[in-house]
Design goal:
With 265 residues, the chain is an alpha+beta fold. Helices cover 43% and strands 22% of the residues. It has nine helices and eleven strands. The protein has helices spanning 13-30, 42-49, 53-65, 83-90, 96-111, 153-159, 164-173, 185-198, 240-260; strands spanning 39-41, 69-73, 76-79, 114-121, 124-131, 146-148, 176-177, 181-182, 201-204, 211-219, 225-234. The strands form three sheets. Strands 6-5-4-11-10-9 form a six-stranded antiparallel β-sheet. A hairpin with a 5-residue loop joins strand 10 (211-219) and strand 11. The longest helix has 21 residues, at 240-260.
Length: 265
Amino acid sequence: MASPALKSPPIAAGENRYAVEAVTRAARVLALFDRARPRQSLAELAEQSGVPKLTLRGILDTLAAHDLLVDDGGGFYRLGYAWLRFADVRRNQFDIRGAAVPIMRAIRDAVNETVILSLRIGDRRVHLDYVESTQPIRRITQPGHEGPLHVGAAGMVLMSGFSEDEIAAYRARHSDVSGDGAADWPAILDGIAAARRDGSSIVAGKVNVHTAAVAAPVRSYNGEIIATLTISCPTDRFTQELSDRCVALVTDGASKLSRSLGYAP
């Protein structure tokens, strides 16, 4: 028989209604974040949700404390990385990682360089999984590692699926990125155009001066770019011959993964 000391006190009817209302308000706020609006201000959220600012600030602070939101400063918020943990559960139903890993291993075995599966989360590219090279000097990463979309081969490929309006909106949000220096938008736009034209992106010395990468798009059943496969290696090994081989391997691998997800070009 359970000890009375271990029993939780009963929740009063009024407290229960308050708890349900708080959860409902939090869910309403989270639903306001989408691809078109990945970063929003307190004022915008208050206007769209109808929640008073004082109450809303408490909800946002609670969500941020649990990494469900990230406080960007200046009254702006974006989705937090705790959602990756929920995505891990969701993969049991839609397992892009399970389909990708055998393909990634085959690519790694062909060139013995690190292969990375990345997704877009808001304005960031996030590594979902990787298969590491066995060479002594190699690219090392980890699931959850993230960076801005506009830097690197994977980001160029993910942004190649943007509409012109989406690119303009992203550019407005990142005209001058703190920590990355002034964004070189002419070069970024050239990189996006090249990824669209070639079906892949090659970037060396941008994310890291010692690292080169080749990325290709993974598409869902409706053709949307939902992920990238990337081969990453030290720039010292990145000869033209290796670059050409990586382009062929990663493009073929991404196509196989896309077909496994229902994409039929």
